[in-house]
Amino acid sequence: MAVRQSWRSLPGRGVGGVIAGRHVRLMSPAFAADVGHVSELLAQRIGIAEEAGRTVLVLLDEGEARGSIAVADEVRNSAAGVMDGLRSAGIEHLVMLTGDNERTAAAVAAAGSDTAVETADVDLMRDDLSALPGFFDLGRRTLANIRQNVALSIAVKGVVLALAVLGKATLWMAVFADTGVALIVIANGLRLLRKR
Fold first, then answer.
1. Which end of the chain is more exposed for a tag (fewer CB within 10 A), N or C?
2. What is the pLDDT of residue 112?
3. Residue 56 belongs to what domain range?
4. 62/87 same-domain check
């Protein structure tokens, strides 16, 4: 039985190591072709697998490609519904981000719908994309709430300022314009918690 003697990560390419004195690497087809020999037959098989939406890893033994492994991510059953939800929420431009090659990405994207949306602006803490359209709805409601709060604050403070200029403002009006409006703004913001 072969014993792993050493190994190292090859970032963006794969892994490599020495097993029983032989240099072995498991890497992407592009890098395998750059550093070793990939036969025409194996290259054709790799192409077929990639067009079918598979990610392919090539096993190099002493620089010679001995075979390949094709793996695939499953498209989530909820993906099409999530994309429809995003479209009905007004999101017109959907993009699939992937580190895979173009053929694999094209095959996955053609699986009935744009299947993945990743964004650095939103972190989903659960394995359920169906919450994504709700985030956009919450964002819109939050923005509307902020506009309401700012408009109320400016209106009340403007009225109290005008009364102060006319000499008709009281201390209680000033307290209301400051603390009272702050409490109203907080209560208005808490309304966002009603719809989960």
1. N
2. 41
3. 4-71
4. no
Is residue 128, in this structure, part of any structural domain at all?
Answer: no
Walk across the sheet containing 22-27 and list its strands: 4-10, 14-19, 22-27, 55-61, 64-71
Cα separation, 50 vs 102, whole angstroms: 9
| Confidence (pLDDT) at 85 | 81
Question: Cα 4 to chain center, whole Å?
Answer: 36
Same domain, 184 and 142: yes
Higher pLDDT, 89 or 178: 178
* Structural domains in the chain (count): 3
d(CA 173, CA 163): 9
Q: What is the C-alpha to C-alpha distance for residues 109 and 53, in angstroms, rounded to an integer?
A: 9
Q: What is the mean pLDDT of residues 9-32?
A: 87
Assess contact for 57 and 71: CB atoms under 8 A: yes
